[in-house]
Structures are given as structure tokens and as C-alpha cells.
Design a protein that fits this description.
This protein is 34% helix and 23% strand. It has 304 residues and is of the alpha/beta class.
């Protein structure tokens, strides 16, 4: 049997608990230490799962680094990580692949560069970038198809996927209204990517309008197909991640509910890609997602 990949996890950003959750999905977790995780939903959804049956065994997070040593040590204790390092580059030669767990895209190139240049596969947290130029720079650093992986884990969320009979019942699509909380630069991808994955009607963009609304940001796109899509990031307003699909014969709202399952699926796909066992997400699709994110960035720029 192939040994599990040795994984390093690097970085943490405001409002993002991925170093805790991603590492725990591979390693399991220490219940007492994880109880003081600053993201209360993480110990809650981990506790609803059975270890090791529901967790991943094809990789193990062996190294961790964040901007603060005390935070790194707490993550290590909570997610059973053996080694805390003083700098991300200390992982070179020690790990087979890396999880970059920061969702503030402006830092992605600096953190990813040493690993991409060394030929170490890396999972870059969503979004890969908020402008095409930055995305192309990152892709240009990659030695090949399997070395750079990035996605919204919600592309794998079953509860956001229309069943064939649901799609048929809606009839011809006319409108999709997708909503996420938090900021456009970090969370709009969770509205954009699942919609673009699922609906062929989101083809070439004919027109678009961007607006700042109630502390958030909104992008309305008219596609060449004739379907209109509105993507909204609501800022500080507490709203679920969901989208409503409108067809000629009815409407249907789908809501995201299962963080563990989506993260697990995304991480599993990364391990498969890094090992050469599965195809990566097409580069053209990554760039299309970034293009839509960039359209939503007004002249004032994207938060974060």
C-alpha cells in the first residue's frame, strides 16, 4: 500500500479556521484542545463524525506554520500535528504537499512561490486570486498540472447540486440568485464556483453590473445564453450560503449545510491530484472563476 502523503499546513487569516478543520479531517483531533478552537462550528461538526471512518487516511498533516507561534502550537495540539516550524520554507524536503490555508488572495503568491518552484504540490485556499493577472502569475510558477490546486470546496457540496429530476421540473432556466455572507474577495467564490460548475448556461458574459449594497457587494451578469445571474456577498450581514434557481415552471432554493463533507471532498481530490491519481480542475475554469470575481471588484477594490 502507498504510504499517506506527508502534508504541511501554512498560514491563517482573519475569520478563517481552515488550519484547524483541514488538519483535523486528516489527523483526527484532540477533543479537549479543539474545544477551545476560536471557530465554534468546527468542533461541533467534527464531533458529529466518527473517527477514523469518516476522516481521510491518504494523507497526514505532519507540519504546521502560522504567523504566530502560539496559534501554530494550538492548532498542532488540537489537530495532532507533530511538528511546528519557524518558517514555511522549513517544510521543504520534509513534506510531500502543502495546504495554504489563507483566504486573503494578496498573500498567495509569496507563500506559494517557494513550494511551486521546488515542485511541491500545493492547495491554495479559495479564491486563487481576485484578478486574472495574479492568477496567471501563480499558474506560471507551477511546474505542471498537478502542482497547483485551488477551489471552493462548495463545488463538491451535494446539497448545492440539482438532481436531474429537479432540473427537469424547473424547465428552461431564466435566473439564478446566489448569496453568501462576508466579503466579496474571500467569499464570493462560494457563490460563483458552484453555479459555474453546474450550469452550462453560465457561458460567455454579455453584460454585467456591479453595485455596493447594504455593506456588501453585488454582481449581476447576463450570459450569452440569456440567463441572468446575481451574485451577492452580504458583508457583515448574517446570511446563509444559498442560491435560488428560477425556471419557466418553478423555483428552487438550495442551501449549503455540510462543511465537513465539502472540505473532505475537496481535500481528498487534492491528494489524488498531487499523487497523480486524478485530473486537476481545468485551468480555463479557474480563470473563469477569477474573471467573475474580478468583475465584482469596483474601483475601490476588493476588501482583503
Amino acid at each position: 500500500m502507498r504510504r499517506p502523503l506527508r502534508l504541511g499546513i501554512i498560514g491563517i487569516s482573519e475569520g478563517n479556521g481552515h488550519p484547524y478543520s483541514w488538519a483535523a479531517i486528516f489527523n483526527g483531533y484532540d477533543q479537549a484542545a479543539m474545544a477551545s478552537c476560536p471557530f465554534s462550528s468546527i468542533p461541533e461538526y467534527l464531533a458529529a463524525r466518527c473517527y477514523p471512518d469518516d476522516f481521510l487516511t491518504a494523507g497526514r498533516v505532519t507540519h504546521v506554520w502560522t504567523q504566530e507561534r502560539a496559534v501554530s502550537e494550538h492548532i498542532a495540539a488540537a489537530a495532532r500535528i507533530e511538528t511546528v516550524v519557524d518558517a514555511p520554507e522549513d517544510m521543504l524536503g520534509e513534506v510531500d504537499a502543502v495546504l495554504l490555508a489563507r483566504d486573503d488572495a494578496r498573500h498567495h503568491r509569496d507563500y506559494a512561490r517557494p513550494f511551486l518552484q521546488a515542485g511541491v504540490p500545493i492547495y491554495i485556499d479559495k479564491p486563487l486570486a481576485v484578478e486574472r493577472k495574479a492568477a496567471l502569475e501563480l499558474l506560471g510558477l507551477s511546474r505542471g498540472e498537478r502542482y497547483l490546486y485551488s477551489c471552493s470546496a462548495l463545488r463538491f457540496a451535494r446539497e448545492l447540486s440539482l438532481a436531474p429530476e429537479q432540473r427537469a421540473a424547473l424547465g428552461r432556466l431564466t435566473y439564478i440568485d446566489a448569496r453568501v455572507p462576508k466579503y466579496w474577495s474571500t467569499y464570493a467564490v462560494h457563490a460563483i464556483e458552484p453555479v459555474l460548475c453546474q450550469f452550462a448556461e453560465t457561458d460567455a458574459i454579455r453584460e454585467h453590473v456591479t453595485a455596493d449594497v447594504d455593506g456588501g457587494r453585488q454582481l449581476t451578469v447576463e450570459w450569452k445564453s440569456g440567463v441572468t445571474t446575481r451574485f451577492t456577498a452580504t458583508g457583515s450581514a448574517q446570511t446563509p450560503i444559498e442560491y435560488t434557481v428560477y425556471g419557466e415552471r418553478g423555483t428552487l432554493t438550495l442551501r449549503f449545510r455540510d462543511s465537513f463533507a465539502a472540505f473532505r471532498a475537496a481535500l481528498e481530490r487534492f491528494v489524488q491530484v498531487a499523487s497523480g491519481d486524478a485530473p486537476n480542475i481545468p485551468r480555463e475554469f479557474l480563470l473563469k472563476v477569477v474573471d467573475v470575481i474580478e468583475l465584482g471588484c469596483t474601483a475601490k477594490g476588493c476588501h482583503g
